[in-house]
């Protein structure tokens, strides 16, 4: 094969396929300490380890939620945390049939000579870290590359650097038994229309898959986490069916069938928007050789966060809110979501933050 | 879109999809004058225009054969030829729902500094030529790029040159209303095993699709004509199921779902081998977002040619042989081939070392 056959090949393919199980998706709970701090401060909660731990316990122990999830992405600190009664989060997830995942990138740095474009760091010692994470129970990893749309962006340099970074990361993960989620996020910021987003998305994805091939990555043991194809944030909105059509077409033109599943990021979309768009894609009658699911952070947690507000007495209310979003998105992966999810406060709220930084 | 959506976009998509109809495939009858000369001389027939015309008439008027075909690739001379009653070949095909296609490349030339690797020529006035062919009734085109496997081959230079060439040819075709068949043939010559062929095929196809993306080619309006993934010609043969597994895996890893159909070349395979392998692929229980069909030259015509021998009195029998191969391959595209349409002739290897068109 042109791919390097790692000793973990069968396991990688099995786990990647499992994550793509129809009816399930990923909860992205891998906010770094800095980022989760912003979330917590928005509900007036102090950014200390105990609060970070409590929030994640709230999420992972929500009754009935885990059945709608095939994976949860964790930040390194969380990988080693436990419930209040002392059970490791990793065990909670495994018992619930959910694969633990781990964010392995170390954020973005600006590319010299560009107009604010970035590349992602984290390759140093990555193999050793991945081995440690595998021992701790992680079975997939995530690395976020970021590109933006502008008059001269994304530049060829940014595309190449980010595609190459993703491919190197992916190859290393596979050597260590972790399914790499390949995330080339094209930011929604800007006044461009949906056609422009489609064009850029297709160009970026083509570069990614060329790089993955160059680096001998086994596609059957990977997942893709792309942006949906939408108008820019400063452009008028369009119907979910239009987003679905442009998104799926972009994927048909670039993502080989060997990739078992595509798990969308939610970007700045509100909880409800993200679900409805995913649902529209799964209703679309066209060739889709990969399953289409979710890997949502803000779009799964926003209402939950607001409902909790850091207070013990709100625990159940907050868990109910998470359950509602998990179930809604599960239905969306099957194209059966009717938009009747009991809207929590904030479910319709845009989560777009200009020039969003993790 | 990153794809160029010109005035022919809908038509290209419609035609590409039609060519990819399950149960149908392509007859590659585009042998250049020189190449058809070799075929004719193998049955002791003189290489003159009337004989070339007679052979093609024999093929295109075979009763019931055209219903197994969605397209026929023609050489330029043939595009303008007629039956002995004066009916243009193009019309014969169109009346039977077969789309005429045209070979537009002008053969290969060596790339200096490589070990016999080649690039394909044919860009001069390609756009204008495509327009002419469109006017004459052609609706798809074909361009053959060739790569070989060796200790240091295919080189990055050869891969890039051929991928870029295919992409440039493809976009020019689409600008002029012709569906481009993209053919990156990795030759079977060599002692390498099937894994090596798979690795090279995947690398080549990945480069081809990257180039097509760069050149804004509309994938929904293209077809792919690849080699099957097999052991090298000097290596022991393997079962059709193995060929099917490696081939389909390679395609799943590289060919975007937007491509409507994949029409295999037969390389040096015998008629029966090619059919059995195609059938095995279509029987494979794995998700295939494009149809898998044939674009065979030798593997459709070999028995027919020998049976004909250039003699009028053999035409009917030769046509039977041709129909038999067409039907067999049509069934193979549906995974329904039962085998046994192999006469002795059908099992003959058609491998020629260092084969040149």
Automatic annotation (TrEMBL), chain A:
It comes from the Eukaryota. Its main location: cytoplasm. Keywords: Cytoplasm, Glutathionylation, Glycolysis, Lyase, S-nitrosylation, Schiff base. It is an enzyme of class 4 (lyase). It is found in: Cytoplasm. InterPro entries: Aldolase_I_AS, Aldolase_TIM, FBA_I. This is Fructose-bisphosphate aldolase. It comes from Hibiscus trionum.
From TrEMBL, chain B:
It comes from the Eukaryota. Belongs to the class I fructose-bisphosphate aldolase family. It comes from Hibiscus trionum. It is found in: Cytoplasm. SUPFAM superfamilies: Aldolase. The lineage of its organism: Eukaryota, Viridiplantae, Streptophyta, Embryophyta, Tracheophyta. It catalyses: beta-D-fructose 1,6-bisphosphate = D-glyceraldehyde 3-phosphate + dihydroxyacetone phosphate. One of its GO terms (biological process) is glycolytic process. GO terms for molecular function: fructose-bisphosphate aldolase activity. Its main location: cytoplasm. Keywords: Cytoplasm, Glutathionylation, Glycolysis, Lyase, S-nitrosylation, Schiff base. It is an enzyme of class 4 (lyase). PROSITE patterns: ALDOLASE_CLASS_I. GO terms for cellular component: cytoplasm. Its EC number is 4.1.2.13. Pathway: Carbohydrate degradation; glycolysis; D-glyceraldehyde 3-phosphate and glycerone phosphate from D-glucose: step 4/4. This is Fructose-bisphosphate aldolase. Gene3D superfamilies: Aldolase class I.
């Amino acid at each position: 094969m042109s791919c390097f056959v790692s000793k973990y090949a069968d396991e990688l393919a099995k786990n990647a396929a499992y994550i793509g199980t129809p009816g399930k998706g990923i909860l992205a709970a891998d906010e770094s300490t800095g980022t989760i701090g912003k979330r917590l401060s928005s509900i007036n909660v102090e950014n200390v380890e105990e609060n970070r731990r409590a929030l994640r316990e709230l999420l992972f122990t929500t009754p009935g939620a885990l059945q709608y999830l095939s994976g949860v992405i964790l930040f390194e600190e969380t990988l080693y945390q436990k419930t209040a009664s002392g059970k490791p989060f990793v065990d909670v997830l495994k018992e619930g049939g959910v694969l633990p995942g781990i964010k392995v990138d170390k954020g973005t740095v600006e590319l010299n000579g560009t107009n604010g474009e970035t590349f992602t760091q984290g390759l140093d010692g990555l193999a050793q870290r991945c081995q440690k994470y595998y021992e701790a129970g992680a079975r997939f990893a995530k690395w976020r590359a970021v590109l933006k749309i502008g008059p001269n962006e994304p530049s060829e340099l940014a595309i190449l650097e980010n595609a190459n970074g993703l491919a190197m990361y992916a190859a290393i993960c596979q050597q260590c038994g972790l399914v790499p989620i390949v995330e080339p996020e094209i930011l929604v910021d800007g006044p461009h229309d949906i056609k422009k987003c489609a064009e850029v998305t297709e160009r970026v994805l083509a570069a990614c898959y060329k790089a993955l091939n160059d680096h001998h990555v086994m596609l059957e043991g990977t997942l893709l986490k792309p942006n949906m194809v939408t108008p820019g944030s400063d452009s008028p909105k369009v119907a979910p069916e239009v987003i679905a059509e442009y998104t799926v077409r972009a994927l048909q033109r670039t993502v080989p069938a060997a990739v078992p599943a595509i798990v969308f990021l939610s970007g700045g979309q509100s909880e409800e928007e993200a679900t409805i768009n995913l649902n529209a894609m799964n209703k679309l009658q066209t060739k889709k050789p990969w399953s289409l699911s979710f890997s949502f952070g803000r779009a799964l947690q926003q209402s939950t966060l607001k409902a909790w507000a850091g207070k013990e007495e709100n625990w159940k209310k907050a868990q109910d809110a998470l359950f509602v979003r998990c179930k809604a998105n599960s239905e969306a992966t099957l194209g059966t979501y009717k938009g009747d999810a009991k809207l929590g406060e904030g479910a319709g709220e845009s989560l777009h933050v200009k020039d969003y930084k993790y | 879109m990153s794809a160029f959506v010109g005035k022919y976009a809908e038509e290209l998509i419609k035609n590409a999809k039609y060519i990819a109809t399950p149960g149908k495939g392509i007859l590659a009858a585009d042998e250049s004058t020189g190449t058809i000369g070799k075929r004719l001389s193998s049955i002791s027939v003189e290489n003159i225009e009337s004989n070339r015309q007679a052979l093609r008439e024999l093929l295109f008027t075979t009763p019931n054969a055209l219903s197994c075909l969605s397209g026929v690739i023609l050489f330029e001379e043939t595009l303008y030829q007629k039956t002995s009653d004066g009916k243009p070949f193009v019309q014969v095909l169109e009346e039977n729902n077969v789309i005429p296609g045209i070979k537009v490349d002008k053969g290969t030339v060596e790339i200096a500094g490589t070990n016999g690797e080649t690039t394909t020529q044919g860009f001069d006035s390609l756009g204008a030529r495509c327009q002419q062919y469109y006017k004459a009734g052609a609706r798809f085109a074909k361009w053959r790029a060739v790569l070989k496997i060796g200790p240091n081959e295919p080189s990055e230079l050869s891969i890039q040159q051929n991928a870029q060439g295919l992409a440039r040819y493809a976009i020019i075709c689409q600008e002029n209303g012709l569906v481009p068949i993209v053919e990156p043939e990795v030759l079977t010559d060599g002692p390498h095993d099937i894994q090596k062929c798979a690795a090279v095929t995947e690398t080549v196809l990945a480069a081809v699709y990257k180039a097509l993306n760069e050149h804004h080619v509309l994938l929904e309006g293209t077809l792919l004509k690849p080699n099957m993934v097999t052991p090298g010609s000097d290596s022991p043969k393997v079962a059709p199921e193995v060929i099917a597994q490696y081939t389909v895996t390679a395609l799943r890893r590289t060919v975007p779902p937007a491509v409507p159909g994949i029409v295999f070349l037969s390389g040096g395979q015998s008629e029966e081998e090619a059919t059995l392998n195609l059938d095995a692929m279509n029987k494979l229980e794995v998700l295939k977002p494009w149809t898998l069909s044939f674009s065979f030259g030798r593997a459709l015509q070999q028995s027919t040619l020998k049976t004909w021998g250039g003699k009028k009195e053999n035409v009917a029998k030769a046509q039977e042989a041709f129909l038999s191969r067409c039907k067999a391959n049509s069934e193979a595209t549906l995974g329904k081939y039962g085998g046994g349409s192999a006469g002795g002739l059908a099992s003959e290897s058609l491998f020629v070392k260092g084969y040149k068109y």
